[in-house]
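Case study.
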Amino acid sequence: MLSLRPYWEEKESNKKPYDKKGGVKVPSMPIVQMKKIYKHFGGVEALKNIELTLYEGEILGLVGDNGAGKSTLIKILSGAIPPDRGEIFFRGEKVNIRNPKDSKELGIETIYQDLALIDNLNVPANMFIGQEIKREKLGRIFNIMNLKAMEKTTRRFLDQLKINVESLRERVHNLSGGQKQSIAITRAIFFNAKVLIMDEPTAALAVEETAKVFNLIRRLRDSGISIVYISHNINEVFDISDRIMVLKTGKLVGVQKKKETTKDKILKMIILGEGYQNEKTALK
Amino acid sequence: MWLKKLIFTAPSLIAFVIIFIFCSIISPFFFTDINLQNILRQIAVNGLLAIGLTMVILIGGIDLSIGSILGLVAIISAMLIRAEVGLIQIILVAIIIGMAIGVTNGFLITQFSIAPFVITLGMQFVLRGLCFSITRGRTIFVEMPFNVDFIANGDIGPIPFPAVLLGLVYFIIFLVMQYTVFGRHLYAIGGNEESTRLFGVNVKLVKIAVYAICGITAAIAGIMNLSRISVGDPQAGTGIAFYIIAAVIIGGNKFTGGRGGLYFTIIGLFIVTLIYNIIILVGLGYYVQLIAEGTIVIIAALLGREGKQ
Amino acid sequence: MKKLLLSKKRKQSFSNTRGLLTALTRKSVGPIRKYATLSSLILLVIISSFLSEAFLTSANILILIRQASVLALTSLGMTLVILSGGIDLSVGGILALSVVSSAQLVLKTNFSPYLIVLTIALLGGFAGLCNGVIIAKGKAEPFLVTMGMGIILRGVAFIVSRGRTLVLGQETPPIIRSITHDFLGPFPYPVIIVGSFFLLFALIMHYTTFGRYVYAFGGDPEVLRLSGVNVIVVQIKIYMVSGMLFGIAGILHLSRINAGDPTAGDLRVLPAIAAVIIGGNQFSGGIGNVGLTVVGILIMGVINNILSLLGATYYVQLIAQGLIIIFAVIINAVSSKD
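After joint prediction, the assembly is written out as follows.
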C-alpha cells in the first residue's frame, strides 16, 4: 500500500502508459470515464450531462470560468460529494464512489484548492492522515501508531522531492502556502496514486515554486500517472496539459488536444461556450 | 398575503397553534382567564431575557451570564428599595449595571477573540458569587412600594402589565432590527462575519452593543423578578440561561446566527411555556416536564440545522 | 516497512520515556500555554502554603483529592469533546442517571460491584452513543443536542429513583465504599483510579489513530473527511467515551455521598468545562491535551480548598473560579498570538 519511492524511479517494465504500434504512440485505455454526470445544489444545476475521459499517462487540463462546475466535477470523482445521476468507470469497470475512501482505494488522489492540511497537526501527521503506519500485532488491533516510522518516512519523502521543511514536529499552521501545497502533493504521489487530481495547485505559489511543481507533474505523467489539472490560468494550462477540457455553466463545451488548438480558441470556448469538435476528434 | 408570510416564515408557529389547541382540549383549566394571565406573566420575565439573548445568538454569540445579571440587579434593587430610592433611579441604576456588565462581556470577547461561551461562563460565576457575597446568602425582604409591585402584578385592562412591558420592548427592538442599519448589521455579522468586517462595518462595536443590550434586558428582567416574588433572592435566575437558549432555538433561530428574529423567539417561548403549563395542569410529574423539554430541544436542533448538501 | 523499523541509520527520534512524557504534558501545545498554567499552579500552591498552615497537611490534601475526583473524571471526558471542537452538556443528566441507577442496582439486585461498574459504564456509553448519533449523523449542534439529552436523562433519573433520594446505608458493597475511602499503599484510591484513567487517555490521545483523529476533527473536520477517514464514526466514538466517563464519575459520586440523588450533577457541567479551559485547552478545539486538564483541575481544587481553609464562604469560591476562567482564557488568547 505504501510505496517509498516516487514513480519515476520504478523500473521501466512497470510502466506502460503508451502502446507503441509501428513506432507511433497510441493512447491506451481510458483510466477514468465519467458519463452523463448531473449534479444540482438547491435550485442550481451545477453539472449537466458531463462526460470526462482521462487516459493513462496524460495530463488533462480542466478549464472554465467561475461557476463552470470544475470543482464540483472533480469532487464527484474524488468522492467528496455524490452525483445526482451518472456513472463512473475505472479502467473500464463500473465503480461506485460513495466517499473519499472509495476513490483513494482506486488510486485516485486529490489535492483540493483551499483544503490542504490540518493546521493543528504536524507534518508527519498530515502526511499519513487516514493511512497511519501502525505497530505490529497488538498495535493493529488497537490502532496504535508508529510515530518514529512516520516521522522518518516523511523526512525521506520530503528529502527525495527536495522540499524544505525544517522542523517536522511543529504544527503546519506556520508553514507557507507553498510548503503546505508541496506536502499535500507529496502525500498524494507517495500513496500509490494512479490518478492525481489537482485543483488550482499553483494559486498560492511563487514563480519558482510553480516551475518546480510543473517539473514534478511532468515527471509524474511520464511515469504513468494520469493527471487532471484545474486552473484559471490559460498559460499554465497550455504549458502543462496534453488535452484541454472546457466547461461552461455546468455544461461540456468541448475537449481539444493542445497541439490542435490555440489559446484563443480555448478562451473562446470558455467565455462564449463555442463548442468545437467533440470527444472523438480530440482522440485521434 | 401577509398571513401566508406569517406562517411560512416560521414553521414553529404551526407547532404552537397545534399545541395550543391540544392544550385547550386536554385540560378544562387551560383556557381560563387565570391560567392564561399566569402564562403571560411567566413569559414576560423570560421574554425580556429572550429578546436580549436573541440578538446575541443572531450575531453568532451566546450569553450565559443573563441569569446572574438578573439576580444581581434583583438584589441590588431590593437594597435600593430598602434605602427608599425612587423607582426611576432604581431603573436607571439597573440599566447602568446591565450595560456595564454587557459591555465588559462584549469587550473581552471582541478584544481578545475569545469564545463567548467561556467569557460569559466566567462572568456568570463571578456575578453569582457577588450575589451571594453581597447578601451573605440570605434573601432580602422588602416592603414593595406600589409602583414597583405594579410592574409584575398589575394589569392594564385584562392584560398583565408585564406583558405590556414586554410588548413595548419587543416593539422597540423589532423596529431596530427591521428598519435600522444596526439591525441589518446583526444579520450580516451572523451570516458572514468576515465579509461584513471587510465591508467596513465596525463589527467589534456592534458586538459590544449587542452584549450591552442583552445585559440591559436582563437587568430589567431582574427588576421584574424582584417585583414578582417580592424578595431579593440571590439565587434568582440560576440556570435560566439554558432554558432561554432552548426557547430561542425552539422558536427557529439558527444557533450559529444569521437567521431568525424576535418573532421566532416569542413563538419558541410560548411553546415551551405552554408545554410546562399543560403538564402541570394535567398533573404529570416533574420528570415528564424534563423529558418533554429535552426532547423538544433535540427536535429543534435537528430541524434547525443547515440542509445536508 | 520492516526495513524501515529495523534500520538504525537515523538517530531514534523518540525514546520511550520521552514519548510518554510528551503524551502527558507537551502534546499539541506551544510552550507558553503549558508553562503558564503549570507555573500558575505551582505559584498557587506556594502562596497557599503560606496563607494557611493546614494546607499542606496530609489530611487536607486527602480532602482536596477526594473532592476533586468526580470533577476529574467529568473533566477528562469533557477534554476529549472540547478538543474535538464540540461540547457535552449532558454531564449532569448522565451523572444523575448513573448515580440513581447504581443505587438501584445496589438496593434491588445482587450484582457484584464490578458488574455494577460495567453496567453503568455501558449505560453512560449508550447515552453518549445517542448523543453522538444525533450529532454526527443528524448533523445537529452538539450544544443543543447534549443540552436536550442532559435534560431528558435527568427526567429519566427521576423516574428510576421514583423522585426520591435512595439512601444506601449499610447495603453498600464495601468495594464501592472503598473507592473513596481506601488506600493502595500511600495513595488514596481516587488518585489511583483517576490517575489511571488520565494516563490511559494520555496514551490514547498520543499513540492511537483515534486520539489523532480527535485533534484532527477539532482542527478541520472536512479535511479529515476528505482524507478518507469516517468522521461520523469518529465523532460518535468521542461522545460515547465522554458518556462512559461521566457514567463512571457517577459511581465515584455515589461512593462519596452514599446515596442516589436524582438531582445530582446539576452543577457539574460548568466546573468540568472550567477545568478544561483553565488548564489551557482551546475552547474551539484542536489544541491542548489531558495533562493540561489535570492542571486545571488542581488549580480549581486548590483554590476551593484554600478558600475554605481561610474561612471564605462558598460564594467567594465562585467569584474566584469565574475570575480565573476569564484570566486564563485571556492569557491563552494573548500568548497564542505569536
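Observations recorded in class. Chain A has ten helices and twelve strands. Residues 1-5, 7-24, 277-284 of chain A have pLDDT under 50 and may be disordered. We will return to this complex in the next lecture.
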